[in-house]
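Summary of Year 1 activities. Much of the first year was spent building the evaluation harness for sequence design. The harness presents a backbone, in tokenized form, and records the residue chosen at every position. We chose the following record to illustrate the format because it has been used consistently in internal testing since the harness was completed.
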């Protein structure tokens, strides 16, 4: 299916941002909402975009994640809003797991003024960020370092994580299936994440709205394993009902620096 130059530009914009509201596309390209909807429909029919609650996104693979650089750039503002919300909910003196993921790294950047934290991580970016906080003790898992994102995985990392029991397991995820299943791409990463879930008194999941319904091949955990989901937009009604049925609290981060009500105290 042939695309006109504007539709190609829209596709490139969505790929760069991860997901975009149709209204935002209309404003960005100086076109009417009706024209934006027609362009989005054409791109959807061409299997270049897919719709989700609140907007559109590029079609994802269930077997291969995007590059680390793309993940850093995608939904950057949403991740910052989520990170600020999470940091406001973490009390001084808490113990945490922090796993692999750019949203988890954003949270680390918001913890630089916390005191008395003890953080166990298999993410070297998180370790580097929190090393700048002299009031935070950082414990780094040993294992195999993934070159692309400096995540530490493998049997050594798995065994290391199992030595600890912490207050909060803070985890990111690549996708949340329609049935609530948490999914990711790398079995080695998934195995460590499962251990983090098992060894945490509470599990806090950080995931922007583009993760809702995103396909990924490997099951990490069921939704009921999560105590609190921090996100940037309300999930669609079916997922919201599923979370309510399974006792998962959802905290939607406020934009622009404000914070919503914190989750129940640990």
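For this record, the design step produced the sequence shown next.
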């Amino acid at each position: 299916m042939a695309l006109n130059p504007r539709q190609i530009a829209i596709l490139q914009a969505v790929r760069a941002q991860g997901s975009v509201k149709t209204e935002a596309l209309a404003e960005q390209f100086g076109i009417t909402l009706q024209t934006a909807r027609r362009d989005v429909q054409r791109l959807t029919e061409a299997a270049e975009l897919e719709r989700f609650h609140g907007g559109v996104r590029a079609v994802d693979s269930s077997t291969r994640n995007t590059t680390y650089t793309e993940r850093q750039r995608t939904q950057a503002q949403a991740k910052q809003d989520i990170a600020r919300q999470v940091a406001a909910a973490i009390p001084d003196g808490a113990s945490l797991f922090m796993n692999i993921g750019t949203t988890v790294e954003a949270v680390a950047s918001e913890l630089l003024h916390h005191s008395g934290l003890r953080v166990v991580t298999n993410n070297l970016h998180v370790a580097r960020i929190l090393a700048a906080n002299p009031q935070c003790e950082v414990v780094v898992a040993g294992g195999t370092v993934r070159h692309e994102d400096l995540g530490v995985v493998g049997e050594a990392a798995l065994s290391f994580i199992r030595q600890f029991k912490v207050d909060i397991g803070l985890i990111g995820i690549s996708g949340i299936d329609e049935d609530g299943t948490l999914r990711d791409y790398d079995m080695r990463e998934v195995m460590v994440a499962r251990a983090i879930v098992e060894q945490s008194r509470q599990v806090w999941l950080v995931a922007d709205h583009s993760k809702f319904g995103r396909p990924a091949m490997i099951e990490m955990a069921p939704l009921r394993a999560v105590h609190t989901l921090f996100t940037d937009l309300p999930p669609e009604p079916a997922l919201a009902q599923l979370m309510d049925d399974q006792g998962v609290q959802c905290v939607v981060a406020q934009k622009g620096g404000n914070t919503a009500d914190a989750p129940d105290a640990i």
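Residues 76-89 form the longest helix (14 residues). Quantitative recovery figures across the full test set are reported in Table 2.
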